[in-house]
Design brief:
2 copies of one chain form a homodimer. Chain A has helices at about 5-10, 25-35, 40-45, 50-60, 65-70, 85-95, 100-105, 110-115, 120-130, 135-145, 150-155, 170-175, 205, 215-220, 230-240, 260-280, 295-320, 320-325, 330-360, 365-395, 400-430, 435-460; strands at about 160, 185-190, 195-200, 225, 245-250, 255-260. With about 475 residues, chain A is mainly alpha-helical. Chain A folds into 3 domains: about 5-150, MgtE N-terminal fold, CATH 1.25.60.10; about 160-280, CBS-domain (Roll); about 295-460, Tetracycline Repressor, domain 2 (Orthogonal Bundle), CATH 1.10.357. The interface between A and B is large, with 132 and 133 residues. Chains A, B: InterPro entries: CBS_dom (IPR000644), CBS_dom_sf (IPR046342), Mg_transptr_MgtE_intracell_dom (IPR006668), MgtE_N_sf (IPR038076), MgtE_transporter (IPR006669), SLC41_membr_dom (IPR006667), SLC41_membr_dom_sf (IPR036739). Chains A, B: This is Magnesium transporter MgtE. Chains A, B: It is a multi-pass membrane protein. Chains A, B: Acts as a magnesium transporter.
Amino acid sequence: MAEPELQTEEPEVEGDEEQAITAALVEAVAETIRTGDAERLRTLAGDLHEADLGELVAALPADLRPGLVELLGEDFHFAALTEVDESVRLELLEDLPTETIVEGLRDLDSDDAVYILEDMEDEDRAEILERLPLPDRVALTRGLDFPEESAGRLMQTDFVAVPPFWTVGRTIDHLREMEDAPETFYEIFVIDPYFKLIGTVPLDRILRSTRNTRIEKILNEDVRSFEATQDREEVARSFQRYNLVSAPVTDPDDRLVGVLTVDDIVDVIQQETEEDLRALGGVMGDEELSDTVVETARGRFPWLVVNLGTAFLAASVIGLFTKSLEHMVALAVLMPIVASMGGNAGTQAMTVTVRALATRELGRRNSGRIVVREVLVGAANGVLLAVLLGAGAGLWFKNLDLGAVIASALIVNMVVAGLFGTIIPLTFHKLKLDPAVASGVFLTTFTDVSGFFGFLGLATWWFGL
Amino acid sequence: MAEPELQTEEPEVEGDEEQAITAALVEAVAETIRTGDAERLRTLAGDLHEADLGELVAALPADLRPGLVELLGEDFHFAALTEVDESVRLELLEDLPTETIVEGLRDLDSDDAVYILEDMEDEDRAEILERLPLPDRVALTRGLDFPEESAGRLMQTDFVAVPPFWTVGRTIDHLREMEDAPETFYEIFVIDPYFKLIGTVPLDRILRSTRNTRIEKILNEDVRSFEATQDREEVARSFQRYNLVSAPVTDPDDRLVGVLTVDDIVDVIQQETEEDLRALGGVMGDEELSDTVVETARGRFPWLVVNLGTAFLAASVIGLFTKSLEHMVALAVLMPIVASMGGNAGTQAMTVTVRALATRELGRRNSGRIVVREVLVGAANGVLLAVLLGAGAGLWFKNLDLGAVIASALIVNMVVAGLFGTIIPLTFHKLKLDPAVASGVFLTTFTDVSGFFGFLGLATWWFGL
């Protein structure tokens, strides 16, 4: 979908600003897939990291993607599919023979396999699971049984667990012989005969202890573990707050069932902040860069309709003052300024509040303080800006009374902005609704209505219109 | 600064929604500091994780914070200071005796010590460095010499490096004897006699290899390493993209100088997204929840002044049409709707573009496609919303011509919104300016001007006003 004309007009950019997969590489790969030259394709794309391979998949025209997978064969690492947009992944999986998918999934860690399987159609997924070897099938089915967005979906089910009475030497010997160890791991778990978690030992501590040291002597008992059904956002917050690199996952009976590693969590942390950012910008969380015009337009439409409704509400407030506007057209010219400044100041307060709630920096302990602070900030900046606005408007229309009226209306609206910019997200949070999603619409409704009503109402009264 | 009245009125929330440090604990700790009961303080706060201890520090009144540090003594882990807002940290460090700070820093990993020292006054920092033991002083001074926001500032200078001809057995013996190993580590580095990096070996691979395996047989040669002067944002993107847990840092001569671990990088990833989110909301990156009213108001004021300027610009466009407004006051009632819808649709397009640029999902290869897509999305939603708006306005004012005029103006403004919502951030990016910071102001200027001019201009022409 590249636009060659546009691109050749663009100036050169430094290497670090460049995307890893260049347009030239995409073109070369596309050409090679068309000719079916497997050897050349392996030279071009066989050594790519799974993240880069994913970017290549997404950049190729959809009809060539299955060819890439088939021609690369064993050199196509299916983990690349965890790096592409959901729509790209589902379309490609739809086009691939079941056998290819089964082969690809067998080489993956269980968390990656679950990630790829979870959004597929039930029927297709069942067909694939059926053809996987029993142990893989059991592990994946178990992972898929946990709720969406839970720790259980993110966890890796291969891990190393030993009893506390083993020595370091025996543990190391066990590791050397183990067949189904995970690809990489950072700590081992210590369990009792019922598989209940007793503690963890980081690998560096094993390496630094003598062979005859008993595991129970070096284990961490104070472990932050998570339940498999726990929400991944909560888990991510803990990882970030307590600087975790990996953590055990347990079932309701405290038995060890898997391990979470920070590389999966990093993406969750990023996604949650990203979702707030998008929500504040009026964009749905599931919109993707690869979406078509129709998909994108459809996703954004509902929010715009809601905004149309609130805009009509604001207009109806203006409609109350048509007489005043007819007598004094300067009011029409100036009124958007008061509303717009309130909207901007309110958005500042709201942005800070929404994020502090999301990171739990803001809670019951300090919510009172933030409301008071934002109201005072609104008042302070309101007074300063009112001087500028009042003078500007007064001089423009050579009417100092008009300047005084608009200045007063601005101060009121800036206080309203600070108050509702904090109260609205705090209220949503208390109602257990996501404050990022709807706060903006409510806020601008309040600041628009208060801006128009305050200014036009005050002017009508002052000038006796 | 808690507001007890507000809090008692709040309903109970679940434990997971609760902040880790409750108002009750803060009160108990404050009381204990006042009475100077060190033993009780250790019971209350001695076992807290450094992140929770940091939250406690921030929640205490400023004058009690030095007392907490002094009374806890060795049980106050200075890493807690890396978890609090900069203003809280600097104020506390100002109030603590140099000797206490020196003792606290000695126990820290070098990256945490650099983090605490970097924002202090040059004079205070020099005094502290002077009193530290020579090896610590050299390591920290070196870290502080790297540019702000560079990999060198984030890295930890203690690491394990061995020559390639060592065996796994000798490496393990070395680790068991090592005195100054870092607190935790996940891989060891392989270097040549000149300290140049040859490769890395993850700890699990050492544990899984037999004692007589030579390190060169099991090392990763394909290592993602970073230069100490590299920007931390770029480093964070690589960590996230390639799922890194730790990575070596080298000097310009390729010599190993330190190691970066993902726990430090997680915060960078979060901060960079957070900065974009704040910038889009018109809030400066360095604003903190602990800031006072004056600090907050001062930080937000410049952005509001810029917005006042653009609001005047939009008002001056309306000023061109005072005659039309006098003849047809319905125009004044309806005109904010067209401007507001354009602003909202443009913000949607801008939000998506700014983030895709930040994550490098969007680059030269696909920037043409996104502009075209957003213009078409604007046109498509514009047509649909124009039907609603046109019908609504036409019925409200019983004037179908007015409905047709506002419908046409909306379509134009929605296309303008899609075009400038993408073009503005892409242009900032190409000029190597942060697209998140100023895009919003420019965008709403365009959508306001185009909204008012389009609607009032079209109406003036149509109705011959």
